[in-house]
């Protein structure tokens, strides 16, 4: 093994640069040349790449985004595009490829793998919805951003006394997953959680808020995952039941940006290095993840066929804390 | 002068606690008893108050919100309510009153003043829309929160390569004022600014973005003040002209929360102390503000009759930076 | 079981308030009265305590420190003091006690346990040096503070060009443990790590830095755990070998403060709730921890007799990243 | 005027990149070519430079450091070096030069000016010790970093109960100036301030702390500017008087790094744009600053001959707040 490629694909996630640093450092340690392919599978198709050596990654660990860009393309899924990608991998003489990204990216990685390329996946997505790893890179940073938002809203919620209680609804990311909203509920002063994994019961939420108002609390903070709907629709439902206006926040794409947390950088460092180690050991067609605090590789087949299990214990805990 | 009251009124703003600290410390320095009236004019009406001594304020300077709460009430504006407030001021034997708040609060302060109460106003509102001061307490913190959001969105904006450029629209607070949006545009990587003080020209914004896309930039970040409309309406207008989907962020009430910046705490310290100094000197019916970097008191009449002048120079600068 | 006590003891750690919230919420869920004992074992000795109900903990999750204070006292270790503590537990009619703290606190918990008190420990210390848990509450926050410091120093390190390279040495906390320094090295742009678990080789560190200078890097950032010495001594050793002045940072007690991270709050929430659950189930004389991402209880005897194992894998990874 | 140069010199300061953005955007607005000279006067001497166009600065406003590096060199002060610099300015056909930096940099700017070069200075230094401007770029960010440190130390100071009070001494930057320490004292929970502009009276500081301990406060936080000595020396003096150990923090170079605050970015934007405007208007040999909230240009002669006046009013306010 002399030369490996690395790409970041799909939605960007904070910590991808920490992962790149580890891939390059580990590659150098194993005397490999490391090629950074730009804009995900787009770069594979179009032959956009550059050498990455130690000095290229020496200062990037704190950056959001990804220095080799990420991208989305449908062309890669078509035969012609896919074959172009294979050709470029051959022309580049890559002995292995590290693919950093989310669910879609892992599917692409498996396809390349089935075409004979030595591929190792690394889970990077704020949604944390990938089977085979307890944590995906970027998730912790996103949760901290949401948590900070809840903290700030709590400041104003507790400061202002009005004739009616004030209720705030915050829409957070996660696509089909409620992981960000659920973990941020464990971390924040939150009174209700709405996630796609659980049926939404507006009546119950309103009743719980009203019970709290009677106890003397004069505000409520609600976290909702984008998977359950739009913040304005949910707010209307609650207003109907509460009888007064609720305030909305739509956090948006800032959840994908910002300085990654120490946790995401450490995770990226471990997984990036392990991905290279696995390729060097001759492994392929796997994704490195962290399971039960241990870094290990899982078959991409498993990653791509199983849906991540919902954490019922955490959900129960949110109910206790929201009560 | 033996005893003064202090209250925070209207929308809370980060730095109000720093102001309270200064009022209490300056009061103590002048051998005054300081009474904290709770929930703004509500506390005056209902006789809700407590003593504030040095130890009560020794640790509050970093807190968001306000330890004596703020509030909004219409009752105070009616004769009966207003008279109750006057009675309570007399019963409390207050020789002076410091009112920390925004435009509405300064109007209430003037009314009390006209009824013979020695009142000194302090401008506290993130909107920074008060005549008589270059900066209101809380504004700098709000701008930093918006700026951080723009930074984070920039991370993902620059990281992801797609078939179309990505455009992000961020709605920020300010009521009828565009100050937060305008100052945050000077501070951030922003491509267009929409504020109520200027006519909104969607065609020109779209044309400018397209020009930038042709230069090679593949994203755009737009800041809009709530005074120009709702983020979803503005986004639809832009989508029509750009031909692709734009992403929305509605920052919401988090702009009022969080640890105040050093600037807002220093401002609150200066104005809070000066408010007491002015009362001790026998001044009344004024608001202390910072003009041209100098702390001075302005007649509440002037504060409440003049509209804050729009900063044309700053607006011209945003156009240069957005270009 | 009708009534439990909770205390925070030893060095404070960010996330202790999140833990308290969970203890009170879980206690309420199980219909228990929860008594907050103040200032750790001092409060047990002196009978200082107060009731904690849901509204007392509704807004504390974001606070640093601990609302019931923590403390250190030698009196508790003496027979007389210890007996007073036992008496107070009896007088308070506590059916169980949750002790949140570090190694010293767990020893105290075991002693109470041996005297017949139902005790459940929760690991809270930034040092992360407690056996029986992969993570102690507060550690993640401390690592993020150190990481932010490294990021900031990197900014100036890379900005300034001088005639000699610039080397920065940062002393971080951890007592006898190098965990904070080691994890922050995985997370940051660090060139050398000095920890008490490994022999310090100044010659090798200097040689590695010189090699990097020759590659074109003109600065170096070094993390040292307080367990290896004082930052000024270590700096002198390095200056002798490098031939130029190095810059020092002594981070100090700020590593124990600040808004806890989402991770520490989630950890505190899980462990706090589980501690109550365990007591309710009749368990005692244990510490709840998180092992391999699963919350479980370990015998206090084991916690207090075994030294936490050094993570050799992480250390190897730091060497790869620092190279 | 067709072509201007820009350089950042001396100690780097957060906000320098915002200033560069504004210089390039304003230059482009005036149809000027903008040349970024690298590493301050070093780049002038060695002819290291590169073109800067709009896309080069579109994303830099949030970065710490400076993308064209800064530097210090004694060669520029010698005749031979200075003449090389003049030659390079001629060879580059620069019609004007913007110099961003601190006191030393302004002296160099004046020298170039006296040799016939059209130069405009911009004050950038965290120390805020430059005559002719109320605020230098970078100062606000440094004060926020110090303030955050004080906040964190307050968390642990208030959390831990011990047999003796806990006193924390924090050494901050500022060279011969106490501005950072003084402003951060206005912003934080600080009990004593030591700055070079005022005589240090250890006895009085200790007496004030003891008075506060008697009031019931069991900790103290002290800010000292590096201009008064080393944190360990000052700590020994205090320990002698207090009779117990004090804790030390040496903040170090992190005060120069990190994401610049909105204030510093806005200031950099205004001053950078105005520097270009002034050059275009034919002005030279001046420094643009902000005085009384108005941007204006001051003669470099004045900047370099007068010492910045100490703000006595702010100092008096610190005494009131520390009491």
TrEMBL record, chains A, B, C, D:
<dbReference type="InterPro" id="IPR000023">
    <property type="entry name" value="Phosphofructokinase_dom"/>
</dbReference>
<keyword id="KW-0067">ATP-binding</keyword>
<keyword id="KW-0808">Transferase</keyword>
<protein>
    <recommendedName>
        <fullName>6-phosphofructokinase</fullName>
        <ecNumber>2.7.1.11</ecNumber>
    </recommendedName>
</protein>
<keyword id="KW-0460">Magnesium</keyword>
<keyword id="KW-0418">Kinase</keyword>
<dbReference type="GO" id="GO:0042802">
    <property type="term" value="F:identical protein binding"/>
</dbReference>
<dbReference type="Pfam" id="PF00365">
    <property type="entry name" value="PFK"/>
</dbReference>
<feature type="domain" description="Phosphofructokinase">
    <location>
        <begin position="3"/>
        <end position="278"/>
    </location>
</feature>
<dbReference type="GO" id="GO:0005945">
    <property type="term" value="C:6-phosphofructokinase complex"/>
</dbReference>
<dbReference type="GO" id="GO:0016208">
    <property type="term" value="F:AMP binding"/>
</dbReference>
<dbReference type="InterPro" id="IPR022953">
    <property type="entry name" value="ATP_PFK"/>
</dbReference>
<dbReference type="InterPro" id="IPR015912">
    <property type="entry name" value="Phosphofructokinase_CS"/>
</dbReference>
<keyword id="KW-0963">Cytoplasm</keyword>
<dbReference type="GO" id="GO:0005524">
    <property type="term" value="F:ATP binding"/>
</dbReference>
<dbReference type="InterPro" id="IPR012003">
    <property type="entry name" value="ATP_PFK_prok-type"/>
</dbReference>
<comment type="pathway">
    <text>Carbohydrate degradation; glycolysis; D-glyceraldehyde 3-phosphate and glycerone phosphate from D-glucose: step 3/4.</text>
</comment>
<dbReference type="GO" id="GO:0006002">
    <property type="term" value="P:fructose 6-phosphate metabolic process"/>
</dbReference>
<dbReference type="GO" id="GO:0070095">
    <property type="term" value="F:fructose-6-phosphate binding"/>
</dbReference>
<comment type="function">
    <text>Catalyzes the phosphorylation of D-fructose 6-phosphate to fructose 1,6-bisphosphate by ATP, the first committing step of glycolysis.</text>
</comment>
<dbReference type="GO" id="GO:0003872">
    <property type="term" value="F:6-phosphofructokinase activity"/>
</dbReference>
<dbReference type="GO" id="GO:0061621">
    <property type="term" value="P:canonical glycolysis"/>
</dbReference>
<keyword id="KW-0324">Glycolysis</keyword>
<keyword id="KW-0021">Allosteric enzyme</keyword>
<keyword id="KW-0547">Nucleotide-binding</keyword>
<dbReference type="InterPro" id="IPR035966">
    <property type="entry name" value="PKF_sf"/>
</dbReference>
<keyword id="KW-0479">Metal-binding</keyword>
<dbReference type="GO" id="GO:0046872">
    <property type="term" value="F:metal ion binding"/>
</dbReference>
<dbReference type="GO" id="GO:0048029">
    <property type="term" value="F:monosaccharide binding"/>
</dbReference>
<dbReference type="GO" id="GO:0030388">
    <property type="term" value="P:fructose 1,6-bisphosphate metabolic process"/>
</dbReference>
<comment type="similarity">
    <text>Belongs to the phosphofructokinase type A (PFKA) family.</text>
</comment>
